Amino acid sequence: MIKPDLNLTIPDQLGSVHFVGVGGSGMSGIARLFLNQGYTVTGSDAKDSPNVQALRELGATVYIGHDAANVGTADSLVVTGALWQDNPEYVLANERGLPVLHRAQALAWLIRQHRLVSVAGAHGKTTSTGMIVTGLLGLGQDPSFVNGGVIESLGVSSASGADDLFVVEADESDGSFLLYHTAVALVTNVDPDHLDHYGSLEAFEAAFVEFSRNASELVVISSDDVGAVRVTAAITAGLSDADAAARVVTFGEHPNSTVRVHSITTTGPVSFSVAWRGQDYSATLRIPGKHNAINAAGAFAVLVGLGFDPAASLDAIAGFGGTQRRFELHGTVGGVSVYDDYAHHPTEVAAALAAARTVVGEGRIIAVHQPHLYSRTRLFAREFAETLEAFADQTIVLGVYGAREDPEPGVTGALVSERFRDPSHVAYVPDWQDAADYLASIARDGDFVVTLGCGDVNRIVPQLLASLEKVRG
Questions:
Q1: CA–CA separation, 50 vs 125, rounded Å?
Q2: What residue numbers does the annotated binding site for ATP cover?
Q3: For residues 138 and 13, what is the distance between their CA atoms, to the nearest angstrom?
Q4: Gap between the Cα atoms of 75 and 324, Å rounded
Q5: Domain 112-319 belongs to what topology?
Q6: 79 neighbors 20 (Cβ within 8 angstroms)
Q7: Architecture of 17-102 per CATH?
Q8: How far apart are CA 407 and CA 409, in angstroms?
Q9: Are 21 and 44 in contact (CB under 8 A)?
């Protein structure tokens, strides 16, 4: 895959900008910001999509398919790490000597004059970013933002606001989150992931230490996650208690949290209270799941850290209605509801399915799991199996979505299914139509079907609904 030079000196002017892989939620959000600031934007993607259509309506020229001719007269190229070295547009840009920027470099360059709130962590970034943006808007602010998913209430993943504040989901997967000149950093957790890039847990955590130390004003960090606790110890080492308290705000269920979340009720939309500076503040979210109460506590800590009123901040956060591909309902056929979720790590899968359990009632949960990356599947096959078997009643495992990686011999979805203790609870069905038909054959009235993965598993949803329609419609 492409490994752009993150130390590249970016020219003062980028001219017209061409985005390779512009249809993704992150890339399309950045392209939207460039359009909003008057830049000429072109792009390409493997397939058409609503994101592509929206960019065209804003004035971008977007090609379907990758071809060197698509670059045209562009002055600079923006790429995503999911591309391959032989991408013809990338090859031509290098031949021409054009600046080739990782998407995070392009965003960092564009927002360099703003007061930046950066949200990082192995899980919960998109939801936490959406909560902060929703909270700021509810408080009468007008922030700019780039999120990794579309905020349902706004219908976009990015926007240019009039205020100085800029909220960004900061991707740790390839270290590019270290590019941002962050004022306030939120670290949702430091659960091990992306070890294919970092090589070790120690290197992964060291990147979060550097990210946190780079924040010029404040670090908001989980008090419950063991990795985050180690990061907190590293960034507060040598500081006085007073300096540490001014520099670092912790959040979570731990009794010593600066912002302590408690009294969590998960029946239906989650309700909870947060204790801060001797006062309790309560809220009920519009979305389910204990993990979202904790995400909301982190967003609350950011807003009060920015100086906003605590009660008003929590009320504003409670207006958050979710983001696309986070427990998103796509349809109900014959009493069977089909949801999609972006979860692609065992911890995320557990959180998504635990949230589903709080609202499924007497129905069962049927997980449709698409393993993401050959390396992650190899490293976490047992953890995925244990999590899926613990939290779902039945699981259908699809083939691996390789994304930026070449196939590895012997690494298939069967690595997950074979590790179930009870094989009657799982089926490895790599063919999507066969998987959809199998799902329809086992589904019962009241069941929740949840597709899981950050690849293209959401594209199977129409097939699932169609097969259900044939059997149950």
A1: 23
A2: 121-127
A3: 35
A4: 33
A5: UDP-N-acetylmuramoyl-L-alanine:D-glutamate ligase (3.40.1190)
A6: yes
A7: 3-Layer(aba) Sandwich (3.40)
A8: 7
A9: yes
> CB under 8 Å to 328, separation ≥6 — which residues?
322, 339, 340, 341
Cα 393–chain centre separation: 26
260 token code pair: 């302590």
DSSP conformational letter for 60? -
Rounded distance between C-alpha atoms, residue 450 and residue 338, angstroms = 6
Smallest CA-to-CA distance from 30 within 179, 141, 138 is with 179
Cα separation of 147 and 166, whole Å?
Answer: 11
Written as six digits, the tokens of 455 are 């690849």
Task: For residue 56, count other CB atoms closer than 10 A to its CB.
Answer: 13
Among residues 42, 2, 39, the alpha carbon closest in space to that of 19 is found at 42
Of the candidates 192, 184, 225, the one whose C-alpha atom is nearest the C-alpha of residue 122 is: 192
Q: Tell me how far apart the alpha carbons of residues 113 and 37 are, in angstroms, rounded to a whole number.
A: 14
Query: What does the chain come to in residues?
Result: 473
Global pTM? 0.77
The catalytic residues are 125-126, 169
The per-residue pLDDT string of the chain (473 residues; one tens digit each, 9 = 90 and over) reads 666 567 778 888 999 999 999 998 788 989 999 999 999 999 999 889 888 999 999 999 999 999 999 999 999 999 987 778 889 999 999 999 999 998 888 988 988 889 999 999 988 899 999 999 999 999 999 999 989 888 888 888 888 899 999 999 998 877 778 888 999 999 999 987 665 666 788 888 999 999 999 999 999 999 999 999 999 999 999 899 999 999 999 999 999 999 999 999 988 789 999 999 999 999 999 888 898 999 999 999 999 999 999 999 999 999 998 887 777 888 999 899 999 998 888 888 998 898 889 888 889 999 999 999 898 899 899 999 999 999 999 999 999 998 878 899 999 999 999 999 999 999 999 999 999 999 999 999 999 999 999 888 999 999 999 999 999 87
CA-to-CA distance for 82 and 79, rounded, in angstroms?
8
Q: Which residues are annotated as a binding site?
A: 121-127
Report the CATH number of the 328-472 domain.
3.90.190.20
Handedness of CA 165, 169, 171, 172 (dihedral sign): positive
What pLDDT, in 10s, does the model give residues 323-356?
877 778 889 998 999 999 988 888 889 988 988 8
Nearest partner of 253 among 283, 203, 297, 189, judged by Cα: 297
The 10 Å Cβ neighbour count of residue 386 is 17
Delimit the domains of the chain by residue range. 17-102, 112-319, 328-472
What DSSP letter does each residue of 398-422 carry, written as one string? ---B-TTS---TT-STHHHHTT-SS
